[in-house]
Design brief:
The protein is of the alpha/beta class. It folds into 2 domains: about 1-165 and about 355-385, Glycogen Phosphorylase B (Rossmann fold, 3-Layer(aba) Sandwich), CATH 3.40.50; about 175-350, 3-Layer(aba) Sandwich (Rossmann fold). Helix content is about 40%, strand content about 15%. Strand 9 (about 225-230), helix 9 (about 235-245) and strand 10 form a beta-alpha-beta unit.
Length: about 375
C-alpha cells in the first residue's frame, strides 16, 4: 500500500487543516494511506495532529523551529516511514520538504497557499518558496488564477495543477455538532442585520477595508441596526480594535476570536463578507454558500472561480471601502436579492466543489507521482488543470 504524507506548519485548525483532515479521514477505505504531519514548535503536539489521532489517522510530528537539523529530521522520517510521496502545504513545509524529499529520494509535490509575510521568518520562507515553485517539476494550486500567475513565471515548465478546496458540510469536519450561538446570547436583537467575516487577522485578508466600509454603511443607513461579527485571531487584531474605536463603530463590532465551529457561528449572520486583498479559494466562502448565507467578496485570486457576481454572490474590487459599502447596502435593503443569491450559491458549490471531485483529483495526482497509470492524463482540462 502506498503511503502519502501531507505536511503543513499548523498552529490551529484553519481552512487548509480542515481540508487535510477531511481527505485523510475520507481516504481510510482507499488502496493508499494518508498520513498527516506538522512541525512541533510548542511542547504539545499541534491541534491538527491531536484531532487527526482521535479519528484514527496516522500522524507524524517533526521537531520545529528554524535550525540546521530540521531537514535531516524530516529526511529520516521519510526513509524510516516508507513514504512514497510527500505533499507539502505552505511556505515552511514547501521549503523544508523540497530538500528532505531530495535527500530521501522521495517524490514531492508542493501545494501553494496564500503568501502572508506575517513575520520576518515567514517572509524568508516565502522568498525561498517562490524560487522553488518556479523550478519544481510539479506544483498544485488551489485556484485557476493562482495557477495562471505562477505558470507565467515557470517559463515553459509543466503548468501547475489546480485542485480546489472542497465544500465540507459540518458533519464532515469531525467536530462536535453543538448548537450555534443564538443572537440573544451574542447580544443581537432580531431586527439587527449581522454582517460577518471569518479568517485570520492578517493584512491580506482585508479586515481594515471591511471596518472602513462598515463605518461608511452606518452613514448610508442611519438608524438601521447592524452588527459586524468577526471570527478569527491574528497579529492585526490590536490594530483592528484601535481602528474600530477611531471610526466610532467599536460598540457594533464583535470580536469573537477563533471559533472551531465557524459554520455554526455563520448561521447567526445575514451576510458573509470576504474583503481579501489576495486569496485562494476561501473555505469560509464555500461554507457560507453551502449554508445559504449570501456572500460579498472581492474580485481577487480564486474567488471569481467560486462566485459569479450577481448570480451566486456579489463581487467588488479589492481595497475599496466605498465599493464594499455599496454592496453591503444592497444586501441590507433587499431580502429578495439575498434569497436569490443564497439559493443559487448553494446549488453551485454542491455541483462544482464536492469532496468527491477533490478526492478524484488527488488520487490522480498520487497515481501519477508513484508511477501508476490511469485512463486520462492529468493535463486534460477535465481534471481541473490550468
Amino acid at each position: 500500500m502506498s503511503r502519502i504524507l501531507h505536511l503543513i506548519a499548523s498552529d490551529s485548525i484553519g481552512g487548509p487543516e480542515k481540508q487535510l483532515l477531511h481527505h485523510a479521514h475520507d481516504a481510510r477505505d482507499a488502496d493508499y494511506e494518508v498520513i498527516l504531519g506538522s512541525f512541533q514548535d510548542d511542547p504539545q503536539p499541534s491541534e491538527l495532529l491531536t484531532l487527526a489521532s482521535r479519528y484514527g489517522i496516522e500522524t507524524v510530528s517533526v521537531p520545529g523551529g528554524i535550525r540546521p537539523g530540521l531537514v535531516d529530521d524530516l529526511t529520516q522520517y521519510l526513509r524510516t516511514g516508507d513514504i512514497d510521496l510527500l505533499c507539502t502545504h505552505g511556505c515552511k513545509a514547501n521549503v523544508v520538504g523540497h530538500f528532505a524529499a531530495k535527500h530521501a529520494n522521495v517524490a514531492w509535490v508542493p501545494f501553494v497557499r496564500d503568501f502572508t509575510a506575517e513575520t520576518w521568518h515567514v517572509t524568508l520562507y516565502e522568498r525561498l518558496e517562490r524560487s522553488l515553485l518556479v523550478r519544481s517539476p510539479w506544483v498544485v494550486c488551489v485556484s485557476a488564477a493562482q495557477a495562471r500567475e505562477l505558470g507565467r513565471l515557470r517559463r515553459g515548465r509543466r503548468a501547475p495543477l489546480v485542485i480546489q478546496n472542497a465544500v465540507l458540510a459540518p458533519r464532515e469536519k469531525g467536530f462536535s455538532q453543538e448548537p450555534a450561538p443564538s443572537r440573544e446570547e451574542l447580544g443581537f436583537s432580531g431586527r439587527t442585520f449581522v454582517f460577518g467575516a471569518a479568517g485570520r487577522f492578517n493584512r491580506e485578508k482585508g479586515h481594515r477595508i471591511l471596518l472602513d466600509a462598515f463605518a461608511l454603511l452606518h452613514k448610508m443607513l442611519p438608524g438601521q441596526p447592524m452588527e459586524l461579527l468577526l471570527l478569527g485571531e491574528g497579529r492585526e487584531e490590536p490594530a483592528l480594535r484601535a481602528q474600530a474605536r477611531r471610526l466610532g463603530i467599536e460598540p457594533r463590532v464583535f470580536f469573537a476570536g477563533f471559533q472551531r465551529r465557524a459554520a455554526a457561528w455563520m448561521k447567526v449572520m445575514n451576510c458573509l463578507v470576504q474583503p481579501s486583498l489576495t486569496d485562494g479559494t476561501p473555505n469560509s466562502v464555500l461554507e457560507a454558500m453551502l449554508l445559504e448565507i449570501p456572500v460579498i467578496a472581492t474580485d481577487t485570486g480564486g474567488i471569481p472561480d467560486v462566485i459569479e457576481s450577481g448570480e451566486t454572490g456579489l463581487l467588488v474590487e479589492p481595497d475599496s471601502p466605498t465599493a464594499l459599502a455599496e454592496a453591503m447596502k444592497k444586501m441590507v435593503c433587499s431580502s429578495a436579492l439575498r434569497n436569490r443569491l443564497a439559493s443559487e450559491a448553494k446549488y453551485r458549490v454542491e455541483q462544482d466543489f464536492s469532496p468527491t471531485r477533490q478526492r478524484e483529483l488527488l488520487e490522480m495526482l498520487y497515481r501519477t507521482m508513484i508511477g501508476d497509470s490511469f485512463p486520462m492524463g492529468v493535463e486534460e482540462p477535465a481534471h481541473g488543470v490550468a
